[in-house]
Amino acid sequence: MARRRTARPSILLRWLAVGAIVLVALLYARPLRSYLGTKHALAQKAADVQALEAQNRQLRDRLATANTTEALQREARRLGLVRPDERLFIVKGISAWVHSRTTINRGG
Predict the structure, then answer these.
(1) Can you give the residue range of the structural domain that contains 76?
(2) Which residue, 2, 46, 79, 85, is most buried by CB atoms nearer than 10 A?
């Protein structure tokens, strides 16, 4: 009978220890989940910042090249503008001419 009396307090202590561990785990679960969620959001924001910095660099490079005289002339030509001392020629049917040249070169 002496054996049973010593076994009961040790079983009770084990269950109390398990209960304490479960309680501590429950108390740490919500802050740990919040920490991991915040860490994930921070990593996502850091990736967004890197992408925006790369885009900013590209835009700064475009702005630096857009302020040159050559770029301004190239953009004006693309819009169909000409200088006051130049003559404007409109050539139509270029695609048909290119197509006919390619078929002649093939032997057709």
Answers:
(1) 2-105
(2) 46
